[in-house]
Amino acid sequence: MRFRLFLILLFISIAPTAVLKYGILRNYETQSVDQRVSLIRSRAQMITPLLEETEYLKGKQSEDIDTQLLQLADLWNGRVVVINRNFRILRDTFSLDEGKVIIAEEVLRSFGGEPTSNYNRGARFLEVTVPVHPTGEETAVDGLLIISVPTDEIVEGKGKLSQAVLVLQGILILFSALAAFYASRILVRPFSKVTASFEEKGGFLEEDISMPDYTETETLAAAYNRMRQRLNAQEESRQEFVSNVSHELKTPLASMKVLADSLLAQEEVPNELYRDFMNDITEEVDRETKIINDLLSLVKMDRTAADLHIQETNINDLIELILKRLRPIAAKQNIDLEQESSRTVIAQIDQTKMTLAITNLVENAIKYNKPDGWVRVSLNMDNSFFFLKVEDSGMGIPEDAQQFIFERFYRVDKSHSREIGGTGLGLAITKQAILMHHGAIRVYSREGEGTTFTVRVPLRYIPEE
Ligand code: ADP
Predict the structure, then answer these.
(1) Measured in angstroms, how far is the CA atom of residue 229 from the centroid of ligand 1?
(2) Is any atom of ligand 1 closer than 6 Å to the C-beta of 361?
(3) Burial of 357 by CB count in 10 Å (0-12 exposed, 13-18 middle, 19+ buried)?
(4) Mean pLDDT (whole number) for 440-458
(5) In 3-state terms, what secondary structure has residue 346?
(6) Taking the C-alpha atoms of 417, 420, 421 and 422 in order, what is their torsion angle to the nearest 10 degrees?
(7) What digits encode the pLDDT tens for the residues 217-236?
(8) C-alpha–C-alpha distance, residues 366 and 333, integer Å
(9) What is the pLDDT of residue 280?
(10) Which of 115, 255, 358, 404 is 20–30 Å from 350 (CA)?
(11) Are 369 and 332 in contact (CB under 8 A)?
(12) Which domains, ranges and CATH numbers included, belong to the chain?
Protein backbone atom coordinates (compact mmCIF):
# COMPACT_ATOMS: atom_id res chain seq x y z
CA MET A 1 0.00 0.00 0.00
CA ARG A 2 2.79 2.37 0.89
CA PHE A 3 4.60 1.76 -2.39
CA ARG A 4 1.38 2.28 -4.34
CA LEU A 5 0.65 5.46 -2.45
CA PHE A 6 4.18 6.61 -3.21
CA LEU A 7 3.73 5.92 -6.93
CA ILE A 8 0.37 7.70 -7.03
CA LEU A 9 1.72 10.76 -5.25
CA LEU A 10 4.78 10.80 -7.49
CA PHE A 11 2.67 10.53 -10.61
CA ILE A 12 0.35 13.30 -9.44
CA SER A 13 3.29 15.62 -8.91
CA ILE A 14 5.25 14.67 -12.04
CA ALA A 15 2.47 14.55 -14.61
CA PRO A 16 1.84 18.34 -14.54
CA THR A 17 5.56 19.07 -15.02
CA ALA A 18 5.58 17.04 -18.23
CA VAL A 19 2.54 18.94 -19.52
CA LEU A 20 4.15 22.20 -18.44
CA LYS A 21 7.36 21.34 -20.27
CA TYR A 22 5.51 20.59 -23.46
CA GLY A 23 3.51 23.83 -23.13
CA ILE A 24 6.59 25.97 -22.48
CA LEU A 25 8.49 24.59 -25.46
CA ARG A 26 5.53 24.88 -27.79
CA ASN A 27 4.87 28.44 -26.71
CA TYR A 28 8.50 29.38 -27.16
CA GLU A 29 8.50 27.99 -30.68
CA THR A 30 5.32 29.75 -31.83
CA GLN A 31 6.42 33.02 -30.34
CA SER A 32 9.84 32.81 -31.93
CA VAL A 33 8.35 31.96 -35.31
CA ASP A 34 5.77 34.77 -35.06
CA GLN A 35 8.48 37.23 -34.12
CA ARG A 36 10.65 36.11 -36.99
CA VAL A 37 7.74 36.38 -39.45
CA SER A 38 6.88 39.92 -38.44
CA LEU A 39 10.53 40.94 -38.53
CA ILE A 40 10.96 39.50 -42.04
CA ARG A 41 7.75 41.12 -43.13
CA SER A 42 8.66 44.58 -41.85
CA ARG A 43 12.12 44.41 -43.45
CA ALA A 44 10.63 43.24 -46.76
CA GLN A 45 8.06 46.01 -46.71
CA MET A 46 10.92 48.49 -46.75
CA ILE A 47 11.80 47.18 -50.21
CA THR A 48 8.40 46.57 -51.77
CA PRO A 49 7.63 50.29 -52.52
CA LEU A 50 10.99 50.51 -54.32
CA LEU A 51 10.07 47.55 -56.53
CA GLU A 52 6.99 49.46 -57.62
CA GLU A 53 8.80 52.76 -58.05
CA THR A 54 11.62 51.39 -60.16
CA GLU A 55 9.26 49.29 -62.23
CA TYR A 56 11.41 46.32 -61.26
CA LEU A 57 8.40 44.08 -61.56
CA LYS A 58 7.91 45.15 -65.15
CA GLY A 59 11.35 43.86 -66.00
CA LYS A 60 13.58 46.88 -65.45
CA GLN A 61 16.96 46.03 -63.94
CA SER A 62 18.18 47.81 -60.83
CA GLU A 63 21.45 47.02 -59.19
CA ASP A 64 20.43 48.89 -56.13
CA ILE A 65 17.42 46.68 -55.66
CA ASP A 66 19.40 43.53 -56.39
CA THR A 67 21.82 44.50 -53.65
CA GLN A 68 19.01 45.25 -51.23
CA LEU A 69 17.41 41.90 -52.01
CA LEU A 70 20.74 40.16 -51.39
CA GLN A 71 21.15 42.05 -48.13
CA LEU A 72 17.68 41.05 -47.15
CA ALA A 73 18.47 37.38 -47.88
CA ASP A 74 21.81 37.54 -46.07
CA LEU A 75 20.23 38.97 -43.00
CA TRP A 76 18.92 35.48 -42.07
CA ASN A 77 21.06 33.37 -44.37
CA GLY A 78 17.94 32.87 -46.42
CA ARG A 79 16.71 33.13 -49.95
CA VAL A 80 14.58 35.84 -51.53
CA VAL A 81 12.55 35.26 -54.67
CA VAL A 82 10.67 38.00 -56.57
CA ILE A 83 7.66 37.03 -58.67
CA ASN A 84 5.68 39.21 -61.03
CA ARG A 85 2.01 39.10 -61.74
CA ASN A 86 2.46 36.25 -64.24
CA PHE A 87 4.01 34.06 -61.55
CA ARG A 88 7.35 34.29 -63.26
CA ILE A 89 10.44 34.47 -61.12
CA LEU A 90 12.23 37.74 -61.89
CA ARG A 91 14.92 37.39 -59.28
CA ASP A 92 16.21 34.57 -57.08
CA THR A 93 19.05 35.39 -54.69
CA PHE A 94 20.20 31.80 -55.08
CA SER A 95 20.07 32.34 -58.88
CA LEU A 96 18.51 28.90 -59.28
CA ASP A 97 15.03 29.39 -60.59
CA GLU A 98 15.06 32.73 -62.43
CA GLY A 99 12.71 32.77 -65.39
CA LYS A 100 10.66 29.87 -64.10
CA VAL A 101 7.02 30.09 -63.28
CA ILE A 102 5.72 28.97 -59.91
CA ILE A 103 2.15 28.36 -59.06
CA ALA A 104 1.82 27.26 -55.47
CA GLU A 105 -1.05 27.59 -53.03
CA GLU A 106 0.71 30.25 -50.98
CA VAL A 107 1.51 32.23 -54.12
CA LEU A 108 -2.09 32.19 -55.26
CA ARG A 109 -3.35 33.14 -51.84
CA SER A 110 -0.86 35.99 -51.61
CA PHE A 111 -1.95 37.34 -54.97
CA GLY A 112 -5.41 37.39 -53.55
CA GLY A 113 -4.04 40.01 -51.14
CA GLU A 114 -3.43 37.70 -48.21
CA PRO A 115 0.18 37.52 -46.95
CA THR A 116 1.14 33.97 -45.89
CA SER A 117 3.72 32.37 -43.68
CA ASN A 118 4.54 28.72 -43.48
CA TYR A 119 6.72 27.14 -40.84
CA ASN A 120 8.03 23.71 -41.68
CA ARG A 121 9.26 22.24 -38.42
CA GLY A 122 10.61 19.04 -39.93
CA ALA A 123 12.65 20.69 -42.68
CA ARG A 124 13.52 23.55 -40.33
CA PHE A 125 12.63 26.48 -42.52
CA LEU A 126 10.20 29.33 -42.59
CA GLU A 127 8.66 30.75 -45.75
CA VAL A 128 7.07 34.20 -45.74
CA THR A 129 5.29 35.82 -48.68
CA VAL A 130 5.03 39.62 -48.91
CA PRO A 131 2.74 41.09 -51.61
CA VAL A 132 3.83 44.18 -53.54
CA HIS A 133 0.95 46.61 -53.87
CA PRO A 134 0.73 49.26 -56.62
CA THR A 135 1.42 52.73 -55.19
CA GLY A 136 -1.54 54.01 -53.26
CA GLU A 137 -3.48 50.78 -53.40
CA GLU A 138 -3.88 48.28 -50.62
CA THR A 139 -5.79 45.46 -52.28
CA ALA A 140 -4.27 44.98 -55.74
CA VAL A 141 -1.11 42.94 -55.95
CA ASP A 142 1.52 43.49 -58.60
CA GLY A 143 4.08 41.00 -57.50
CA LEU A 144 5.37 38.95 -54.60
CA LEU A 145 8.44 38.55 -52.44
CA ILE A 146 8.97 35.02 -51.18
CA ILE A 147 11.48 34.90 -48.37
CA SER A 148 12.64 31.54 -47.06
CA VAL A 149 14.89 31.43 -44.03
CA PRO A 150 16.35 28.50 -42.09
CA THR A 151 15.06 28.20 -38.53
CA ASP A 152 18.02 26.38 -37.01
CA GLU A 153 18.36 29.08 -34.36
CA ILE A 154 14.83 28.61 -33.22
CA VAL A 155 15.33 24.86 -33.02
CA GLU A 156 18.61 25.35 -31.18
CA GLY A 157 17.00 27.81 -28.79
CA LYS A 158 14.25 25.35 -28.20
CA GLY A 159 16.84 22.64 -27.52
CA LYS A 160 18.59 24.82 -24.96
CA LEU A 161 15.35 25.75 -23.32
CA SER A 162 14.36 22.10 -23.30
CA GLN A 163 17.58 21.24 -21.49
CA ALA A 164 17.02 23.93 -18.92
CA VAL A 165 13.45 22.76 -18.39
CA LEU A 166 14.71 19.18 -18.14
CA VAL A 167 17.12 20.12 -15.35
CA LEU A 168 14.30 21.93 -13.61
CA GLN A 169 12.05 18.95 -14.15
CA GLY A 170 14.72 16.65 -12.70
CA ILE A 171 14.98 18.77 -9.59
CA LEU A 172 11.20 18.85 -9.32
CA ILE A 173 10.94 15.07 -9.70
CA LEU A 174 13.57 14.63 -7.02
CA PHE A 175 11.66 16.88 -4.64
CA SER A 176 8.37 15.23 -5.52
CA ALA A 177 9.87 11.78 -4.95
CA LEU A 178 11.15 12.86 -1.56
CA ALA A 179 7.85 14.47 -0.66
CA ALA A 180 5.90 11.43 -1.92
CA PHE A 181 8.20 9.12 0.03
CA TYR A 182 7.66 10.97 3.29
CA ALA A 183 3.97 11.59 2.67
CA SER A 184 3.34 7.91 1.96
CA ARG A 185 5.29 7.02 5.09
CA ILE A 186 3.27 9.38 7.23
CA LEU A 187 -0.03 8.31 5.68
CA VAL A 188 0.67 4.63 6.21
CA ARG A 189 2.17 5.00 9.68
CA PRO A 190 -1.08 4.28 11.58
CA PHE A 191 -1.37 0.97 9.73
CA SER A 192 2.14 -0.01 10.79
CA LYS A 193 1.03 0.67 14.36
CA VAL A 194 -1.85 -1.80 13.95
CA THR A 195 0.46 -4.41 12.48
CA ALA A 196 2.82 -4.01 15.41
CA SER A 197 -0.10 -4.49 17.81
CA PHE A 198 -1.32 -7.53 15.89
CA GLU A 199 2.07 -9.13 16.15
CA GLU A 200 2.05 -9.08 19.96
CA LYS A 201 3.00 -12.46 21.27
CA GLY A 202 1.56 -14.57 24.05
CA GLY A 203 -1.80 -16.04 24.99
CA PHE A 204 -3.52 -12.82 26.01
CA LEU A 205 -3.63 -9.66 23.92
CA GLU A 206 -2.68 -7.15 26.53
CA GLU A 207 -3.92 -3.75 25.47
CA ASP A 208 -6.67 -2.10 23.55
CA ILE A 209 -5.31 0.00 20.72
CA SER A 210 -6.42 3.47 19.84
CA MET A 211 -5.73 5.12 16.49
CA PRO A 212 -7.76 8.24 15.97
CA ASP A 213 -5.59 9.22 12.94
CA TYR A 214 -8.28 8.38 10.33
CA THR A 215 -11.83 7.09 10.45
CA GLU A 216 -10.61 3.91 8.77
CA THR A 217 -7.93 3.25 11.37
CA GLU A 218 -10.40 4.09 14.12
CA THR A 219 -12.81 1.46 12.77
CA LEU A 220 -9.95 -0.98 12.45
CA ALA A 221 -8.86 -0.32 16.02
CA ALA A 222 -12.41 -0.80 17.30
CA ALA A 223 -12.71 -4.09 15.39
CA TYR A 224 -9.36 -5.17 16.76
CA ASN A 225 -10.40 -4.32 20.31
CA ARG A 226 -13.59 -6.33 19.97
CA MET A 227 -11.62 -9.24 18.56
CA ARG A 228 -9.10 -8.87 21.40
CA GLN A 229 -11.84 -9.17 24.00
CA ARG A 230 -13.29 -12.20 22.25
CA LEU A 231 -9.93 -13.92 21.96
CA ASN A 232 -9.05 -13.10 25.54
CA ALA A 233 -12.34 -14.53 26.75
CA GLN A 234 -11.67 -17.66 24.72
CA GLU A 235 -8.13 -17.90 26.03
CA GLU A 236 -9.34 -17.42 29.58
CA SER A 237 -11.95 -20.13 29.23
CA ARG A 238 -9.38 -22.42 27.59
CA GLN A 239 -6.94 -21.96 30.45
CA GLU A 240 -9.68 -22.42 33.02
CA PHE A 241 -10.86 -25.55 31.23
CA VAL A 242 -7.38 -27.06 31.17
CA SER A 243 -6.86 -26.36 34.87
CA ASN A 244 -10.33 -27.73 35.67
CA VAL A 245 -9.70 -30.85 33.64
CA SER A 246 -6.43 -31.57 35.40
CA HIS A 247 -8.00 -30.92 38.78
CA GLU A 248 -10.99 -33.16 38.04
CA LEU A 249 -8.80 -35.94 36.72
CA LYS A 250 -6.45 -35.70 39.66
CA THR A 251 -9.13 -35.95 42.36
CA PRO A 252 -10.13 -39.62 41.81
CA LEU A 253 -6.46 -40.52 41.39
CA ALA A 254 -5.61 -38.86 44.69
CA SER A 255 -8.43 -40.76 46.46
CA MET A 256 -7.24 -44.03 44.96
CA LYS A 257 -3.72 -43.29 46.12
CA VAL A 258 -4.87 -42.58 49.67
CA LEU A 259 -6.92 -45.78 49.74
CA ALA A 260 -4.14 -47.92 48.31
CA ASP A 261 -1.50 -46.32 50.56
CA SER A 262 -3.51 -46.96 53.71
CA LEU A 263 -3.98 -50.61 52.68
CA LEU A 264 -0.27 -50.97 52.07
CA ALA A 265 0.61 -49.33 55.37
CA GLN A 266 -1.15 -52.04 57.35
CA GLU A 267 0.45 -55.42 57.87
CA GLU A 268 -2.50 -57.67 58.35
CA VAL A 269 -5.50 -56.23 56.57
CA PRO A 270 -8.79 -57.87 57.46
CA ASN A 271 -10.46 -59.25 54.39
CA GLU A 272 -13.55 -57.11 54.93
CA LEU A 273 -11.61 -53.84 55.08
CA TYR A 274 -9.67 -54.92 52.04
CA ARG A 275 -12.87 -55.48 50.08
CA ASP A 276 -14.28 -52.23 51.36
CA PHE A 277 -11.27 -50.24 50.18
CA MET A 278 -11.16 -52.06 46.86
CA ASN A 279 -14.80 -51.18 46.39
CA ASP A 280 -14.01 -47.52 46.95
CA ILE A 281 -11.10 -47.74 44.52
CA THR A 282 -13.36 -49.26 41.86
CA GLU A 283 -15.81 -46.43 42.38
CA GLU A 284 -13.06 -43.90 41.83
CA VAL A 285 -11.96 -45.70 38.66
CA ASP A 286 -15.56 -45.58 37.42
CA ARG A 287 -15.65 -41.90 38.19
CA GLU A 288 -12.41 -41.24 36.35
CA THR A 289 -13.74 -43.19 33.38
CA LYS A 290 -16.95 -41.17 33.39
CA ILE A 291 -15.05 -37.88 33.40
CA ILE A 292 -12.87 -39.04 30.54
CA ASN A 293 -15.89 -40.22 28.57
CA ASP A 294 -17.68 -36.93 29.13
CA LEU A 295 -14.59 -35.02 28.10
CA LEU A 296 -14.36 -37.05 24.92
CA SER A 297 -18.03 -36.36 24.17
CA LEU A 298 -17.42 -32.67 24.72
CA VAL A 299 -14.38 -32.64 22.47
CA LYS A 300 -16.43 -34.33 19.76
CA MET A 301 -19.09 -31.64 20.16
CA ASP A 302 -16.47 -28.93 19.79
CA ARG A 303 -15.68 -30.05 16.30
CA THR A 304 -17.26 -28.58 13.20
CA ALA A 305 -20.61 -29.38 11.67
CA ALA A 306 -18.79 -31.72 9.27
CA ASP A 307 -18.86 -34.31 12.07
CA LEU A 308 -22.64 -34.40 12.16
CA HIS A 309 -24.39 -37.44 10.72
CA ILE A 310 -27.77 -36.01 9.94
CA GLN A 311 -30.65 -38.48 9.53
CA GLU A 312 -34.44 -38.22 9.32
CA THR A 313 -35.44 -39.43 12.77
CA ASN A 314 -38.66 -40.11 14.62
CA ILE A 315 -38.11 -38.05 17.76
CA ASN A 316 -40.96 -39.76 19.67
CA ASP A 317 -39.23 -43.12 19.24
CA LEU A 318 -35.90 -41.62 20.19
CA ILE A 319 -37.32 -40.26 23.47
CA GLU A 320 -39.10 -43.50 24.23
CA LEU A 321 -35.82 -45.38 23.88
CA ILE A 322 -33.99 -42.93 26.16
CA LEU A 323 -36.67 -43.17 28.85
CA LYS A 324 -36.63 -46.96 28.62
CA ARG A 325 -32.90 -46.97 29.33
CA LEU A 326 -33.24 -44.57 32.26
CA ARG A 327 -36.28 -46.15 33.86
CA PRO A 328 -34.27 -48.52 36.08
CA ILE A 329 -32.35 -45.55 37.56
CA ALA A 330 -35.59 -43.65 38.13
CA ALA A 331 -37.17 -46.70 39.70
CA LYS A 332 -34.41 -46.79 42.32
CA GLN A 333 -35.71 -43.52 43.75
CA ASN A 334 -39.26 -44.34 42.94
CA ILE A 335 -39.44 -41.53 40.43
CA ASP A 336 -42.20 -41.53 37.89
CA LEU A 337 -41.03 -41.02 34.27
CA GLU A 338 -43.77 -39.73 31.98
CA GLN A 339 -43.72 -39.14 28.24
CA GLU A 340 -46.18 -36.79 26.60
CA SER A 341 -46.59 -36.08 22.93
CA SER A 342 -49.57 -35.08 20.86
CA ARG A 343 -48.16 -35.85 17.41
CA THR A 344 -45.38 -37.65 15.64
CA VAL A 345 -42.29 -35.57 15.12
CA ILE A 346 -39.85 -36.38 12.33
CA ALA A 347 -36.72 -34.22 12.23
CA GLN A 348 -33.29 -34.19 10.64
CA ILE A 349 -30.82 -34.74 13.46
CA ASP A 350 -27.62 -36.46 14.43
CA GLN A 351 -29.05 -39.35 16.49
CA THR A 352 -26.01 -40.02 18.67
CA LYS A 353 -25.51 -36.39 19.64
CA MET A 354 -29.20 -35.64 20.18
CA THR A 355 -29.59 -38.82 22.27
CA LEU A 356 -26.69 -37.71 24.44
CA ALA A 357 -28.22 -34.24 24.85
CA ILE A 358 -31.66 -35.51 25.85
CA THR A 359 -30.25 -38.28 28.06
CA ASN A 360 -28.26 -35.73 30.05
CA LEU A 361 -31.37 -33.61 30.63
CA VAL A 362 -33.52 -36.52 31.76
CA GLU A 363 -30.69 -38.00 33.81
CA ASN A 364 -30.27 -34.68 35.65
CA ALA A 365 -34.03 -34.47 36.21
CA ILE A 366 -33.81 -37.88 37.92
CA LYS A 367 -30.52 -37.20 39.76
CA TYR A 368 -31.57 -33.87 41.24
CA ASN A 369 -35.07 -35.01 42.14
CA LYS A 370 -36.75 -35.92 45.40
CA PRO A 371 -37.64 -39.49 46.24
CA ASP A 372 -41.12 -40.32 44.89
CA GLY A 373 -40.91 -37.36 42.54
CA TRP A 374 -41.78 -37.20 38.87
CA VAL A 375 -40.14 -36.30 35.55
CA ARG A 376 -42.22 -35.29 32.53
CA VAL A 377 -40.80 -35.23 29.01
CA SER A 378 -43.09 -33.61 26.46
CA LEU A 379 -42.69 -33.14 22.73
CA ASN A 380 -44.37 -30.66 20.44
CA MET A 381 -43.80 -29.02 17.08
CA ASP A 382 -44.76 -26.26 14.67
CA ASN A 383 -43.91 -25.79 10.98
CA SER A 384 -40.21 -25.31 11.48
CA PHE A 385 -39.22 -26.56 14.95
CA PHE A 386 -39.77 -29.30 17.43
CA PHE A 387 -39.98 -28.38 21.09
CA LEU A 388 -38.85 -30.62 23.90
CA LYS A 389 -39.65 -29.95 27.53
CA VAL A 390 -38.05 -31.80 30.44
CA GLU A 391 -39.77 -30.96 33.73
CA ASP A 392 -39.01 -32.34 37.16
CA SER A 393 -40.28 -32.04 40.69
CA GLY A 394 -36.74 -31.78 42.05
CA MET A 395 -34.68 -29.44 44.16
CA GLY A 396 -34.51 -26.66 41.57
CA ILE A 397 -31.57 -24.41 40.72
CA PRO A 398 -30.91 -21.16 42.61
CA GLU A 399 -31.57 -18.13 40.42
CA ASP A 400 -28.02 -16.79 40.55
CA ALA A 401 -26.62 -20.19 39.53
CA GLN A 402 -28.87 -20.58 36.50
CA GLN A 403 -26.61 -18.59 34.18
CA PHE A 404 -23.63 -20.84 34.93
CA ILE A 405 -25.07 -24.34 34.73
CA PHE A 406 -24.16 -24.76 31.03
CA GLU A 407 -20.50 -24.04 31.75
CA ARG A 408 -18.04 -26.88 31.80
CA PHE A 409 -17.43 -28.34 35.28
CA TYR A 410 -19.93 -26.01 36.93
CA ARG A 411 -21.95 -27.65 39.69
CA VAL A 412 -24.34 -25.95 42.07
CA ASP A 413 -23.45 -28.20 44.95
CA LYS A 414 -20.12 -29.84 44.29
CA SER A 415 -20.24 -32.47 46.98
CA HIS A 416 -23.83 -33.49 46.22
CA SER A 417 -23.14 -33.74 42.49
CA ARG A 418 -20.04 -35.77 43.25
CA GLU A 419 -21.99 -38.10 45.47
CA ILE A 420 -24.44 -38.86 42.72
CA GLY A 421 -21.71 -39.19 40.14
CA GLY A 422 -21.88 -35.87 38.30
CA THR A 423 -18.96 -34.44 36.38
CA GLY A 424 -20.28 -30.95 35.67
CA LEU A 425 -19.96 -31.61 31.95
CA GLY A 426 -23.43 -32.94 31.18
CA LEU A 427 -25.21 -29.65 30.42
CA ALA A 428 -22.17 -28.30 28.52
CA ILE A 429 -22.39 -31.34 26.25
CA THR A 430 -26.16 -30.91 25.89
CA LYS A 431 -25.90 -27.23 24.98
CA GLN A 432 -23.13 -27.85 22.45
CA ALA A 433 -25.14 -30.62 20.78
CA ILE A 434 -28.24 -28.42 20.53
CA LEU A 435 -26.20 -25.54 19.11
CA MET A 436 -24.71 -27.83 16.49
CA HIS A 437 -28.27 -28.43 15.33
CA HIS A 438 -28.83 -24.64 15.27
CA GLY A 439 -31.25 -25.01 18.15
CA ALA A 440 -31.64 -23.27 21.51
CA ILE A 441 -31.96 -24.33 25.14
CA ARG A 442 -33.43 -22.49 28.15
CA VAL A 443 -33.86 -23.23 31.81
CA TYR A 444 -36.67 -22.21 34.15
CA SER A 445 -36.34 -23.18 37.75
CA ARG A 446 -37.51 -22.37 41.25
CA GLU A 447 -35.50 -23.57 44.18
CA GLY A 448 -37.25 -26.36 46.04
CA GLU A 449 -40.04 -26.64 43.46
CA GLY A 450 -38.49 -28.07 40.35
CA THR A 451 -36.80 -27.32 37.07
CA THR A 452 -37.87 -27.12 33.43
CA PHE A 453 -35.51 -27.27 30.46
CA THR A 454 -36.95 -26.28 27.08
CA VAL A 455 -35.23 -27.16 23.84
CA ARG A 456 -36.04 -25.86 20.36
CA VAL A 457 -34.52 -27.57 17.31
CA PRO A 458 -35.23 -26.93 13.59
CA LEU A 459 -37.00 -29.82 11.86
CA ARG A 460 -34.77 -29.48 8.82
CA TYR A 461 -31.06 -29.25 9.31
CA ILE A 462 -29.57 -26.28 7.48
CA PRO A 463 -25.86 -26.71 6.85
CA GLU A 464 -23.78 -23.58 7.31
CA GLU A 465 -22.51 -21.83 4.18
P1 ADP B 1 -23.49 -32.81 36.59
O2 ADP B 1 -22.66 -33.84 35.94
O3 ADP B 1 -22.92 -32.31 37.86
O4 ADP B 1 -24.93 -33.16 36.67
P5 ADP B 1 -24.39 -30.92 34.61
O6 ADP B 1 -23.61 -30.06 33.69
O7 ADP B 1 -25.29 -31.91 34.01
O8 ADP B 1 -23.35 -31.56 35.60
O9 ADP B 1 -25.22 -29.94 35.51
C10 ADP B 1 -24.59 -28.86 36.12
C11 ADP B 1 -25.27 -28.54 37.43
O12 ADP B 1 -26.55 -28.00 37.23
C13 ADP B 1 -25.47 -29.70 38.29
O14 ADP B 1 -24.35 -29.94 39.09
C15 ADP B 1 -26.65 -29.30 39.13
O16 ADP B 1 -26.22 -28.56 40.23
C17 ADP B 1 -27.45 -28.40 38.24
N18 ADP B 1 -28.59 -29.07 37.59
C19 ADP B 1 -28.64 -29.61 36.37
N20 ADP B 1 -29.85 -30.11 36.09
C21 ADP B 1 -30.61 -29.93 37.20
C22 ADP B 1 -31.96 -30.23 37.53
N23 ADP B 1 -32.79 -30.85 36.70
N24 ADP B 1 -32.36 -29.86 38.77
C25 ADP B 1 -31.54 -29.25 39.62
N26 ADP B 1 -30.27 -28.92 39.36
C27 ADP B 1 -29.80 -29.25 38.16
Answers:
(1) 29
(2) no
(3) buried
(4) 96
(5) strand
(6) -30
(7) 788 888 888 988 888 888 88
(8) 8
(9) 92
(10) 404
(11) no
(12) 2-158 (3.30.450.20), 215-298 (1.10.287.130), 305-458 (3.30.565.10)
